[in-house]
Amino acid sequence: MSERDKGKDESARNRPNPIALQKALKGVDYPATRGALVSAARESGADDEIVDALEAIPEKRYEDPAQVSEAVAHRRE
């Protein structure tokens, strides 16, 4: 495995499971700010990996769960 491939594997491991992410955000009213998403995740009992991932996304209004998932997937690539 090349160093580049190892980096991709490591990056994927640092992302929360998309299904767990959406479960943590169940009931969120969209559009929602990053702060609202973080608060909702904490209130739902999400693990630190999910909360940390949400805290790392850009501050903006997210129109739907798909936008949140995309932002989490592309953070710090």
From TrEMBL:
Location of region: Disordered: 1-26, 56-77
Biased composition (Basic and acidic residues) is annotated at: 1-13
Recorded protein name is DUF2795 domain-containing protein
The organism's taxonomic lineage, starting at the top = Bacteria, Pseudomonadati, Pseudomonadota, Betaproteobacteria, Burkholderiales
